[in-house]
Specification:
By secondary structure, this protein is an alpha+beta fold. It is built from five helices and eight strands. Strands 1, 2, 3, 4, 5, 6, 7 and 8 form an eight-stranded antiparallel sheet that branches.
C-alpha cells in the first residue's frame, strides 16, 4: 500500500463501508515455500471484528494450521495520464482504493457452516431489488449436504485495518478535477466512474 500520509487519512466509516459491502477480497497467508493467495467472497461481522467465509477443502490454505493472515480488498482503480492535469512536469500514475485487514485466521467447526452460508447469502440477496431472496431451503437436502462436505468455514479475527485512497489528493484541486473528468471519458482501469466521483469528493472527510 502507498506510504504517503496524504493517501491514508480516510475516515474510519469510509473504510468500514468498503470492507462491508465490497464482499470480495484476496486472502493472503504464509505458505511453506511461498505466500498463498485465495480470492474469496466474505462477510464482515457488524462490529468489523471479523470476516467470515469458507474455503474449498482442496485449497492449500485449508491444509495449514491457524495463523496470521491478511484480507486485501480493492475498490475502483484507474490509470491517470499526466496530460490530464493541465500542468507541466507531471508523470503517469495509477489511482486506487485498497484496504488491508490483518489478523488471525481460524478454521471453524463444521457445525457452523450452514449458518455461515445462510447468513452470507441472506446479506447479499438482501441487496438485490425486486427479487425474492434465494435461500438454502430451495436446495434438496442431499445436494446441500454433498456440497457442504466440500467446503470448510473460516473466520479472520481482525486485529488491524489499513487503507489507501490514492485520489490525487497531493495535486491542486484544478489538476485533480481535470483528471477526474478525463478518466470518466477515457479510462483504463476498474469502476472508473466510481473512481472519478471519489476524486471529486476529496477531502474524504466530507459526506
Amino acid at each position: 500500500m502507498h506510504p504517503n500520509p496524504a493517501f491514508r487519512d480516510a475516515p474510519e466509516w469510509r473504510t468500514n463501508h468498503i470492507l462491508r459491502y465490497r464482499g470480495f477480497g484476496t486472502l493472503c497467508v504464509n505458505g511453506e515455500s511461498a505466500p498463498l493467495l485465495s480470492h474469496i467472497p466474505y462477510m464482515m461481522t457488524p462490529n468489523r471484528e471479523a470476516a467470515r467465509f469458507h474455503l474449498v477443502r482442496s485449497n492449500p490454505i485449508a491444509r495449514l494450521p491457524d495463523g496470521p493472515a491478511v484480507l486485501a480488498v480493492t475498490g475502483p482503480d484507474g490509470y491517470i495520464s499526466p496530460d490530464w492535469y493541465g500542468a507541466d512536469d507531471q508523470v503517469p500514475t495509477w489511482n486506487y482504493v485498497a484496504v488491508h485487514a490483518r489478523g488471525h485466521l481460524e478454521r471453524r467447526p463444521a457445525e457452523e457452516l450452514r449458518e455461515l452460508l445462510e447468513a452470507q447469502s441472506a446479506f447479499f440477496e438482501g441487496q438485490l431489488e425486486n427479487k425474492r431472496p434465494w435461500t438454502m431451503d430451495k436446495m434438496t437436502p442431499e445436494v446441500a449436504e454433498r456440497m457442504m462436505r466440500q467446503i470448510v468455514p473460516y473466520t479472520l479475527h481482525i486485529e488491524d485495518v489499513q487503507s489507501t485512497w490514492k485520489l490525487n489528493q497531493n495535486k491542486p484541486d484544478t489538476a485533480r478535477l481535470a483528471a477526474a473528468d478525463a478518466i470518466e471519458e477515457e479510462a483504463i482501469g476498474f469502476e472508473t466512474d466510481a473512481l472519478a466521483e471519489m476524486m471529486r469528493r476529496v477531502p474524504l472527510t466530507e459526506d
